[in-house]
Amino acid sequence: MSPDHYLLSVIRRARRLGGRFRHRPPRHLVYGIKALMAALVAWTLAGAWAVDGRPYLAVATALLMVNADTVYRSVAKALQNVVAKVAGLALALMTVQLLGATAGAIAVIVLGTVLVGPRRTADSRRQVASTAVVGLAATAGDPIGGLVSPLLQTLSGAVVGIVVNALVLPPLHLDESDSAVQKLAHAMGNLLSDMGTGLAREQLGSKAHVWLHRARELEKHLTHAQEQVRQADESLRWNARGVARARRSDVTYGELFGALRGVLLQVRGIARALADNAHDRRADHHLGHQFLDRYAETLQLAGAAVRGLVEPYAAGDPSETDPRERLRKAIEGALTWHETMTELIHQGTLTKPGAWHVYGSLMTDVERLLFDLDYAGTRRTRGQRDAATWISAT
Known about the structure:
Elements: H1 3-23, H2 26-46, H3 56-66, H4 71-99, H5 103-114, H6 122-141, H7 143-167, H8 174-200, H9 204-236, H10 240-248, H11 253-278, H12 289-308, H13 323-347, H14 356-393
């Protein structure tokens, strides 16, 4: 290979590496900086009482705590780590006093920690066992020093890791939570709109099984959103960044998730009722076209209302394109159609003799769906108003 070709190859590799670093999420860079800070501080503080001035245990503990996903979790992990270290070192001290630093002592430690206790504490018991085995030689040579030095290193490393994680850009997971709830709302809203469009185009027979499959698939979105909301709530605990963020937020996605969870039950009920009716071979059980046309309009409006719950708030926008205004109009329109259909069913205009139970199921589901949407929309509008007041005041 000529020097020019070799130089070009090196340049291409350097560009690829630079591109990877440039496109890497900033969170990885933050974690790297925090880990470096925690390691250096732990090394400096714990070096005074560490054996030979090498506090490796303090550095390892600090790195474990500083990379926790939340401040709350770093504290919980620190407590578990310290308790496990204390238990392991105490076990090593008692074992070496009885059996000495022998293979029998190791066997006793392993059997006593791994086989005893409930299965849910298996990770903690394995940590106790590993600490006891590592500390066996140290406690045999210097019982007190072998117990005190690792314990001090663990405590100092845990404190350093927690402090750095809490003070240097403590992790928040609100963006992930917001995105997951938005995807859930859009998936449900799109399904409702598609069902409404399909009913208007007389596609009940050909599309009903597809709608039911999509409604069942919503459970995956729900599970993912639930986990993200739980992690976001946990990241707000003992987090100074979360206070200002919560005040500026125009909507609490945790509350919206609760409303959407109820809406999902109704969406699945509607899809199931439509699928059952589409595959019912009894002609007198089929839904009337006049009812389906009006119900299609209701589903389309409900779909728009669900999507409107998670649309961003434009402060100071009084126009018709304001998400709050669209949400309010969608809910009001759907409620109006619901009242009209209820009256027509009461008069016997829309019903067929054998389909009364299907009408009742569909109307009950949409009524509960609209109630949840109306409640969530009212809460969101109030939250947006409060957020706007806070922003203008600051």
